[in-house]
């Protein structure tokens, strides 16, 4: 039995109290726990993060989902692809035919007529130029008047104008022929056919109307995060970002990134200077080349949802708890560098 101090023995009632041993042990545990909690709050570091949600996008427009349109008006005679089929650049998608099956033949006949007009106009120009030369010599010798020479020059100009008009008609006809001949619609790049928008063969389509939707293969991907406007002023290009992709198992510890599992690394690429309609700001995140590569596009395709945590300053656990309880902004960086 522990001996009590003499000044406590002066109080008989207090001296007669014998607290249970379990209560004493619990009191010691609570005291030690409070001391450890204070030490944790004061000295254990916590990494602040700015959280956001978003999706995987392609920054290059050529890597985004694109539509394949009809180049000319006509009927869909034959489809070469189906929904979900992979195609390479230049592979045929559909063949169109004009509503008039004899249009190309008539255009060919019209071309022959215009070429004949051009040949006749060229011959007329040569004859008129010869007459100008003869009239000049005759005018120099005084056989004809100066007016006859000027009239010959006018005829040359008229014939040249007719020749130019015939060539312009041929150029317009060639444009029409080229458009009507471009009736085989081909894939603009490697990809997968997502959806065929026309019903079936024989469907009438207009020029510029969508025939199919193509998703390019192996696109260059970035992550588009939407963050709160209170944090966007502290975000700078090059900052580290931790990402959790939809459908990819992950365990995130915001304050201790080293403990997280299943996360992928990125870095801030750019921050939009203006807010979206939702009031949030868009932050583009690139893959960090010095860390593990992101999952393949077959697992994380374009449009997949993402959660991200942009790493900020390191503070104590106590300060972070006090900041959250008081709804204060993140810690301002000690060394701020302006974006390039």
UniProtKB/TrEMBL annotation:
One of its GO terms (molecular function) is transmembrane transporter activity. Keywords: Coiled coil, Membrane, Transmembrane, Transmembrane helix. It comes from the Bacteria. PANTHER family: MEMBRANE FUSION PROTEIN (MFP) FAMILY PROTEIN (PTHR30386:SF27), MEMBRANE FUSION SUBUNIT OF EMRAB-TOLC MULTIDRUG EFFLUX PUMP (PTHR30386). Belongs to the membrane fusion protein (MFP) (TC 8.A.1) family. The keyword Metal-binding does not apply. GO terms for cellular component: membrane. Residues 104-183 form a coiled coil. The keyword Transmembrane applies. The lineage of its organism: Bacteria, Pseudomonadati, Pseudomonadota, Alphaproteobacteria, Hyphomicrobiales. InterPro entries: MFP, RND_pump_MFP. The chain crosses the membrane at residues 21-46. This is RND transporter.
């Amino acid at each position: 039995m522990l001996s009590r101090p003499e000044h406590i023995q002066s109080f008989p009632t207090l001296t007669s109290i014998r607290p249970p041993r379990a209560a004493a042990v619990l009191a010691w545990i609570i005291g030690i726990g409070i001391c450890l909690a204070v030490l944790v709050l004061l000295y254990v570091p916590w990494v602040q993060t700015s959280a956001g949600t978003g999706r995987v996008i392609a920054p290059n427009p050529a890597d985004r989902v694109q539509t394949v349109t009809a180049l000319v008006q006509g009927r869909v005679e034959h489809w070469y692809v189906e929904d979900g089929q992979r195609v390479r650049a230049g592979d045929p998608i559909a063949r169109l035919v004009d509503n008039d099956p004899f249009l190309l033949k008539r255009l060919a006949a019209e071309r022959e007529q215009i070429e004949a007009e051009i040949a006749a106009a060229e011959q007329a120009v040569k004859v008129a130029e010869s007459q100008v030369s003869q009239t000049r010599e005759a005018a120099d010798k005084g056989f004809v008047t100066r007016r006859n020479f000027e009239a010959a020059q006018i005829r040359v100009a008229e014939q040249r104008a007719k020749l130019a008009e015939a060539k312009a008609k041929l150029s317009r006809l060639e444009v029409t022929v080229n458009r009507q001949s471009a009736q085989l619609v081909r894939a603009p790049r490697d990809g997968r056919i997502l959806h065929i928008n026309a019903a079936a063969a024989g469907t009438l389509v207009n020029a510029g109307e969508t025939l199919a939707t193509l998703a390019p293969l192996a696109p260059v991907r970035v992550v588009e995060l939407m963050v709160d406007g209170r944090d966007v002023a502290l975000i700078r290009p090059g900052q580290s970002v931790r990402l959790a992709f939809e459908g990819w198992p992950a365990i995130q510890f915001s304050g201790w990134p080293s403990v997280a599992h299943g996360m992928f690394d990125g870095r801030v690429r750019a921050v939009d200077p203006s807010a979206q309609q939702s009031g949030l700001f868009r932050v583009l995140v690139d893959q960090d080349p010095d860390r593990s590569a992101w999952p393949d596009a077959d697992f994380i395709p374009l449009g997949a949802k993402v959660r991200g945590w942009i790493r900020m300053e390191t503070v104590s656990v106590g300060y972070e708890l006090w900041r959250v309880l008081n709804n204060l902004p993140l810690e301002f960086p000690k060394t701020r560098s302006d974006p390039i």
